[in-house]
User: Which sequence fits this backbone?
Protein backbone atom coordinates (compact mmCIF):
# COMPACT_ATOMS: atom_id res chain seq x y z
CA UNK A 1 0.00 0.00 0.00
CA UNK A 2 1.46 3.37 -1.01
CA UNK A 3 -1.20 5.88 0.11
CA UNK A 4 -0.06 7.12 3.49
CA UNK A 5 -2.92 9.37 4.61
CA UNK A 6 -5.84 11.62 3.73
CA UNK A 7 -3.86 14.84 3.71
CA UNK A 8 -6.34 17.51 2.65
CA UNK A 9 -9.88 18.17 1.48
CA UNK A 10 -10.98 20.79 -1.05
CA UNK A 11 -14.36 22.50 -1.08
CA UNK A 12 -15.85 25.07 -3.46
CA UNK A 13 -18.16 27.72 -2.06
CA UNK A 14 -19.77 31.10 -2.70
CA UNK A 15 -19.66 31.73 1.09
CA UNK A 16 -16.01 31.93 2.17
CA UNK A 17 -16.80 34.32 5.02
CA UNK A 18 -19.24 31.75 6.44
CA UNK A 19 -16.63 29.05 6.07
CA UNK A 20 -14.05 31.21 7.86
CA UNK A 21 -16.37 31.91 10.80
CA UNK A 22 -17.39 28.25 10.98
CA UNK A 23 -13.82 27.01 10.78
CA UNK A 24 -12.59 29.38 13.47
CA UNK A 25 -15.47 29.66 15.92
CA UNK A 26 -17.10 26.21 15.71
CA UNK A 27 -14.31 23.85 14.64
CA UNK A 28 -11.53 25.80 16.33
CA UNK A 29 -9.19 25.88 13.34
CA UNK A 30 -6.95 28.75 12.28
CA UNK A 31 -7.62 30.50 8.97
CA UNK A 32 -5.42 32.24 6.45
CA UNK A 33 -5.72 33.54 2.92
CA UNK A 34 -4.77 31.13 0.15
CA UNK A 35 -3.98 31.84 -3.50
CA UNK A 36 -6.52 33.43 -5.84
CA UNK A 37 -9.02 34.32 -3.12
CA UNK A 38 -9.10 30.87 -1.52
CA UNK A 39 -9.32 30.16 2.21
CA UNK A 40 -7.04 27.83 4.17
CA UNK A 41 -8.15 26.18 7.41
CA UNK A 42 -5.24 24.94 9.49
CA UNK A 43 -5.30 22.06 12.03
CA UNK A 44 -1.62 21.38 12.72
CA UNK A 45 1.87 22.32 11.52
CA UNK A 46 0.86 22.10 7.86
CA UNK A 47 -0.25 25.30 6.17
CA UNK A 48 -3.76 23.90 5.74
CA UNK A 49 -5.81 20.72 5.89
CA UNK A 50 -9.01 22.18 4.39
CA UNK A 51 -9.04 24.60 1.48
CA UNK A 52 -12.12 26.42 0.20
CA UNK A 53 -12.04 27.96 -3.27
CA UNK A 54 -14.47 30.60 -4.53
CA UNK A 55 -17.28 29.22 -6.71
CA UNK A 56 -20.87 29.93 -7.67
CA UNK A 57 -22.20 26.76 -5.99
CA UNK A 58 -21.40 24.85 -2.82
CA UNK A 59 -19.77 21.47 -3.47
CA UNK A 60 -17.10 19.08 -2.29
CA UNK A 61 -14.26 18.99 -4.82
CA UNK A 62 -11.78 16.30 -3.76
CA UNK A 63 -9.80 14.56 -1.07
CA UNK A 64 -6.01 14.66 -1.30
CA UNK A 65 -4.30 11.30 -0.74
CA UNK A 66 -0.62 11.45 0.17
CA UNK A 67 2.05 9.01 -0.95
CA UNK A 68 5.48 9.08 0.73
CA UNK A 69 7.74 10.14 -2.14
CA UNK A 70 8.13 10.67 -5.88
CA UNK A 71 8.94 7.02 -6.53
CA UNK A 72 5.64 5.92 -4.96
CA UNK A 73 3.82 8.71 -6.83
CA UNK A 74 5.27 7.65 -10.19
CA UNK A 75 4.62 3.97 -9.49
CA UNK A 76 0.95 4.50 -8.67
CA UNK A 77 0.49 6.79 -11.65
CA UNK A 78 2.09 4.21 -13.96
CA UNK A 79 -0.08 1.42 -12.51
CA UNK A 80 -3.28 3.40 -13.07
CA UNK A 81 -2.30 4.35 -16.62
CA UNK A 82 -1.53 0.70 -17.35
CA UNK A 83 -5.00 -0.26 -16.13
CA UNK A 84 -6.69 2.28 -18.37
CA UNK A 85 -7.62 4.82 -15.70
CA UNK A 86 -7.85 8.39 -16.99
CA UNK A 87 -5.28 10.63 -15.33
CA UNK A 88 -6.10 14.31 -14.85
CA UNK A 89 -2.71 16.07 -14.57
CA UNK A 90 -1.70 18.93 -12.32
CA UNK A 91 -1.34 22.50 -13.49
CA UNK A 92 0.50 25.56 -12.18
CA UNK A 93 -2.51 27.08 -10.43
CA UNK A 94 -3.42 23.75 -8.85
CA UNK A 95 0.09 23.24 -7.51
CA UNK A 96 0.14 26.76 -6.09
CA UNK A 97 -3.19 26.15 -4.32
CA UNK A 98 -2.33 22.71 -2.94
CA UNK A 99 1.28 23.51 -1.97
CA UNK A 100 2.66 20.12 -2.99
CA UNK A 101 5.47 18.90 -5.25
CA UNK A 102 3.05 17.25 -7.67
CA UNK A 103 -0.42 15.71 -7.87
CA UNK A 104 -2.77 14.08 -10.32
CA UNK A 105 -6.48 13.30 -10.10
CA UNK A 106 -8.63 10.30 -10.96
CA UNK A 107 -12.37 9.69 -10.72
CA UNK A 108 -14.23 6.60 -9.54
CA UNK A 109 -17.38 5.21 -11.25
CA UNK A 110 -19.59 7.71 -9.38
CA UNK A 111 -17.41 10.66 -10.35
CA UNK A 112 -15.79 11.10 -6.94
CA UNK A 113 -12.45 12.84 -7.44
CA UNK A 114 -9.34 11.47 -5.73
CA UNK A 115 -6.15 13.53 -5.85
CA UNK A 116 -2.87 11.68 -5.38
CA UNK A 117 0.04 13.88 -4.29
CA UNK A 118 3.50 13.85 -2.76
CA UNK A 119 5.72 16.32 -0.94
CA UNK A 120 3.54 18.79 1.00
CA UNK A 121 5.08 22.25 1.29
CA UNK A 122 4.68 23.97 4.66
CA UNK A 123 6.08 26.86 6.65
CA UNK A 124 5.68 24.65 9.75
CA UNK A 125 4.19 27.49 11.76
CA UNK A 126 2.65 26.25 15.02
CA UNK A 127 -1.09 25.69 15.14
CA UNK A 128 -2.81 28.34 17.25
CA UNK A 129 -6.55 27.81 17.57
CA UNK A 130 -8.81 30.83 17.37
CA UNK A 131 -10.77 29.53 20.39
CA UNK A 132 -8.00 27.93 22.44
CA UNK A 133 -8.30 24.32 21.26
CA UNK A 134 -4.98 22.62 22.00
CA UNK A 135 -4.75 20.43 18.90
CA UNK A 136 -6.43 17.99 16.54
CA UNK A 137 -5.54 14.32 16.10
CA UNK A 138 -3.68 14.39 12.78
CA UNK A 139 0.05 13.61 12.62
CA UNK A 140 0.66 10.45 10.66
CA UNK A 141 -3.07 9.65 10.77
CA UNK A 142 -4.17 12.36 8.35
CA UNK A 143 -6.86 14.98 8.77
CA UNK A 144 -9.67 12.56 9.73
CA UNK A 145 -12.02 10.81 7.32
CA UNK A 146 -14.46 11.54 4.52
CA UNK A 147 -17.54 9.58 3.45
CA UNK A 148 -18.33 9.77 -0.26
CA UNK A 149 -21.58 8.91 -2.08
CA UNK A 150 -21.32 5.73 -4.14
CA UNK A 151 -24.54 4.54 -5.76
CA UNK A 152 -22.33 2.11 -7.69
CA UNK A 153 -20.89 0.99 -4.40
CA UNK A 154 -19.25 -2.20 -5.64
CA UNK A 155 -17.55 -0.28 -8.43
CA UNK A 156 -16.45 2.40 -5.99
CA UNK A 157 -15.11 -0.21 -3.58
CA UNK A 158 -13.14 -1.96 -6.31
CA UNK A 159 -11.72 1.37 -7.47
CA UNK A 160 -10.58 2.41 -3.98
CA UNK A 161 -9.01 -0.95 -3.16
CA UNK A 162 -7.89 -2.55 -6.46
CA UNK A 163 -6.92 0.66 -8.27
CA UNK A 164 -5.77 2.97 -5.46
CA UNK A 165 -4.63 0.25 -3.09
CA UNK A 166 -6.53 1.27 0.04
CA UNK A 167 -7.19 -1.53 2.54
CA UNK A 168 -10.67 -2.74 3.49
CA UNK A 169 -11.34 -2.07 7.18
CA UNK A 170 -14.93 -3.24 7.64
CA UNK A 171 -18.43 -3.29 6.09
CA UNK A 172 -21.71 -1.93 7.46
CA UNK A 173 -25.17 -2.85 6.23
CA UNK A 174 -28.14 -1.35 8.05
CA UNK A 175 -31.76 -0.33 7.66
CA UNK A 176 -32.11 3.41 7.14
CA UNK A 177 -35.66 4.67 6.78
CA UNK A 178 -36.86 1.35 5.38
CA UNK A 179 -33.99 1.07 2.89
CA UNK A 180 -30.89 -1.08 3.22
CA UNK A 181 -27.77 1.10 3.21
CA UNK A 182 -24.33 -0.37 2.64
CA UNK A 183 -20.98 1.21 3.50
CA UNK A 184 -17.41 0.12 2.87
CA UNK A 185 -14.73 1.54 5.20
CA UNK A 186 -11.13 1.72 4.00
CA UNK A 187 -7.78 2.65 5.52
CA UNK A 188 -4.47 4.08 4.39
CA UNK A 189 -0.99 2.96 5.41
CA UNK A 190 -1.46 4.25 8.96
CA UNK A 191 -3.37 3.19 12.07
CA UNK A 192 -6.55 5.26 11.63
CA UNK A 193 -9.37 2.71 11.41
CA UNK A 194 -10.73 4.37 8.28
CA UNK A 195 -9.84 7.45 6.28
CA UNK A 196 -12.46 6.77 3.61
CA UNK A 197 -15.95 5.36 3.59
CA UNK A 198 -18.19 4.80 0.59
CA UNK A 199 -21.94 4.92 1.24
CA UNK A 200 -24.76 3.81 -1.02
CA UNK A 201 -26.50 7.13 -0.44
CA UNK A 202 -27.14 10.20 -2.58
CA UNK A 203 -25.28 13.39 -1.64
CA UNK A 204 -25.87 16.33 -4.00
CA UNK A 205 -22.97 18.26 -2.46
CA UNK A 206 -20.58 15.38 -3.24
CA UNK A 207 -19.92 14.55 0.42
CA UNK A 208 -21.91 12.46 2.90
CA UNK A 209 -19.87 13.73 5.84
CA UNK A 210 -16.41 14.69 7.05
CA UNK A 211 -14.94 13.67 10.41
CA UNK A 212 -12.27 15.47 12.44
CA UNK A 213 -10.83 14.12 15.68
CA UNK A 214 -10.02 16.03 18.87
CA UNK A 215 -7.71 14.84 21.67
CA UNK A 216 -10.07 14.81 24.66
CA UNK A 217 -13.69 14.05 25.54
CA UNK A 218 -13.87 17.56 26.98
CA UNK A 219 -13.10 18.92 23.50
CA UNK A 220 -16.05 16.94 22.09
CA UNK A 221 -18.38 18.26 24.77
CA UNK A 222 -17.26 21.85 24.28
CA UNK A 223 -17.76 21.50 20.52
CA UNK A 224 -21.28 20.22 21.15
CA UNK A 225 -21.94 23.30 23.29
CA UNK A 226 -20.64 25.59 20.53
CA UNK A 227 -22.86 23.89 17.95
CA UNK A 228 -25.92 24.32 20.18
CA UNK A 229 -25.10 27.94 21.02
CA UNK A 230 -24.67 28.77 17.31
CA UNK A 231 -28.08 27.25 16.52
CA UNK A 232 -26.63 24.68 14.13
CA UNK A 233 -28.67 21.58 13.33
CA UNK A 234 -27.76 18.42 15.26
CA UNK A 235 -28.01 15.36 12.99
CA UNK A 236 -26.96 12.51 15.30
CA UNK A 237 -26.59 12.57 19.06
CA UNK A 238 -23.46 11.67 20.98
CA UNK A 239 -22.59 7.97 20.60
CA UNK A 240 -19.82 5.43 20.14
CA UNK A 241 -19.20 3.58 16.88
CA UNK A 242 -18.72 -0.18 16.65
CA UNK A 243 -15.92 -0.19 14.08
CA UNK A 244 -13.50 2.46 15.41
CA UNK A 245 -14.80 2.96 19.01
CA UNK A 246 -14.89 6.71 18.33
CA UNK A 247 -17.16 8.78 20.62
CA UNK A 248 -18.69 11.47 18.43
CA UNK A 249 -21.68 13.51 17.33
CA UNK A 250 -22.85 14.81 13.94
CA UNK A 251 -24.21 18.21 12.95
CA UNK A 252 -24.87 20.31 9.87
CA UNK A 253 -22.48 23.10 8.98
CA UNK A 254 -23.82 26.54 7.90
CA UNK A 255 -23.01 25.68 4.28
CA UNK A 256 -24.89 22.37 4.41
CA UNK A 257 -22.28 19.67 5.00
CA UNK A 258 -22.62 17.06 7.73
CA UNK A 259 -19.62 17.13 10.07
CA UNK A 260 -18.64 14.60 12.72
CA UNK A 261 -16.46 15.58 15.67
CA UNK A 262 -15.00 12.61 17.53
CA UNK A 263 -12.59 11.44 20.21
CA UNK A 264 -10.39 8.41 20.85
CA UNK A 265 -10.77 6.49 17.63
CA UNK A 266 -8.90 3.20 17.83
CA UNK A 267 -5.44 3.06 16.24
CA UNK A 268 -5.12 -0.28 14.48
CA UNK A 269 -2.33 -2.77 14.02
CA UNK A 270 -3.37 -4.03 10.60
CA UNK A 271 -1.30 -7.20 10.91
CA UNK A 272 -3.68 -8.30 13.67
CA UNK A 273 -6.96 -7.14 12.09
CA UNK A 274 -9.73 -9.26 10.59
CA UNK A 275 -12.32 -7.62 8.35
CA UNK A 276 -15.87 -7.91 9.66
CA UNK A 277 -19.37 -6.88 8.59
CA UNK A 278 -21.80 -5.42 11.08
CA UNK A 279 -25.46 -4.43 11.04
CA UNK A 280 -25.01 -2.31 14.19
CA UNK A 281 -23.31 1.05 13.53
CA UNK A 282 -22.91 2.11 17.16
CA UNK A 283 -22.57 0.55 20.62
CA UNK A 284 -24.72 3.32 22.07
CA UNK A 285 -26.18 6.70 21.10
CA UNK A 286 -25.96 8.20 17.62
CA UNK A 287 -29.73 8.66 17.41
CA UNK A 288 -30.74 10.23 14.10
CA UNK A 289 -32.55 13.42 15.10
CA UNK A 290 -32.48 15.61 11.99
CA UNK A 291 -36.28 15.74 11.77
CA UNK A 292 -36.96 15.58 15.51
CA UNK A 293 -38.42 18.96 16.62
CA UNK A 294 -36.63 18.66 19.96
CA UNK A 295 -33.30 18.93 18.13
CA UNK A 296 -34.09 21.54 15.51
CA UNK A 297 -31.61 24.36 15.01
CA UNK A 298 -31.88 26.79 17.90
CA UNK A 299 -34.05 24.37 19.89
CA UNK A 300 -33.34 22.27 22.94
CA UNK A 301 -33.62 18.70 24.06
Assistant:
Amino acid sequence: MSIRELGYAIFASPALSQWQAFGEQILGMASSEGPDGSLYLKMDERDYRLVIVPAAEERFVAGGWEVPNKAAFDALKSKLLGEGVEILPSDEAGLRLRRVQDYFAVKDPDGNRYEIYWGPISGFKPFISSIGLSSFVTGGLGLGHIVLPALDIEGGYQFATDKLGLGLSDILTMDFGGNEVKLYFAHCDNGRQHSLALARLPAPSGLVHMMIEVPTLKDVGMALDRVEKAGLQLVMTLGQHVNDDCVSFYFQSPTGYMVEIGWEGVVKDWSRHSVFETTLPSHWGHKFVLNDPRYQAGGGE
About this structure: The mean pLDDT is 96.
